Amino acid sequence: MKNYEEWAFAIRISSRALKKWGFVEGAIAKPNDGSSELEDWGTIQSMLISWIMNTIEPSIRSTVTYTKTTEELWVDLKERFSIINGLRIQQLKVKFVNCK
Q: How many angstroms separate the CA atoms of 99 and 25, rounded?
């Protein structure tokens, strides 16, 4: 995914606008079995997973098909595509400092 940071930003903004970011980041925990909230939690998880899956390329989608929670999907994609190039960052900082 060449545009991971841009994509992740859009997902964060959209999910916050829908008051669902807590599901993505894992702050909203799965209710206990038998809880009256369990079905709603599962419905929201399914909706968010579907939504995220529909925003990623089919070749990537096929590698995360069996993800069970939105948080698990988010972490998996972040670990694979949020690669920080420390050397490039340093080079840009040096260029910025030397900019006249």
A: 38
Show me where the domains of the chain are located.
4-97
Strands (E), 1-100: none
First to last CA, the chain: 35
User: Please, are residues 74 and 52 in contact by the beta-carbon 8 Å criterion?
Assistant: yes
The pLDDT tens digits of the residues spanning 52-85 come to: 999 999 988 888 888 889 999 999 999 888 876 6
Do residues 14 and 62 lie in contact, with contact meaning Cβ atoms separated by under 8 Å? no
Helix (H, G, I), strand (E, B) or coil at 93: helix
Query: How many Å apart are CA 17 and CA 34, to the nearest integer?
Result: 30
